[in-house]
Amino acid sequence: MKISRERLVIIASTLVIFLGFLTAVINGRRDHIYRTLVAMISLSIPLILPRSLPYPPKKLWPFLSPIYNEGTMAILAVFIAVHVSLVNVPFTHCDLFHRDWRNADTISHFLGGLTVWLIVAQILSGLGGIGIRFSKRQVVLYSFLVFYALSIGWEIAEKLSESEISFIHESFANKLRDLLMDTLGALFALWMIERKGYPFSLEEE
After folding, report:
1. What is the pLDDT of residue 3?
2. CA of 195: how far to CAs of 48, 77, 111, 144, 187, in Å?
3. Which end of the chain is more exposed for a tag (fewer CB within 10 A), N or C?
4. Which domain holds residue 6?
């Protein structure tokens, strides 16, 4: 049976995360053991769910549609694998994200912005299947509104966590940079679906 390119990307990303898991065990990093386990379990869902539940309930389809789109899941897998590897480079003690290269979060924010916007846009575009129809323009507008609500909410949550988590301490300028990278990622995602029709396309109503 032929395996799609996207499925291979998901599997390869999971293997990279598994290397991170082994590294965490070797280094005794409990936080990274937990992080990599959650990541591997999460990426197993798009590999298993579409085959075990090929016809999900119609009312749930808009919210499950990103999981059934291997292109979207491949992009998510790359984002997760890169982020996890930045936190602890496999088979090293390097923590690029929190210690050794604090600017590494720009990569995660770009890929995260790309991924989050794609998922939100795909969910909104799929709501027509349950009677909530948006035009292409509305999908783009509302997806960016939701995207910024999530992005700003994340930055606020990080700020509120500074007193509890010692390695999280970012200036206001850093927060703005994070939002900029989120935005660039989202705009690149919009370009992908507009120019390439990948991993899905937005049809005019």
Report:
1. 85
2. 30, 22, 19, 18, 12
3. N
4. 1-100
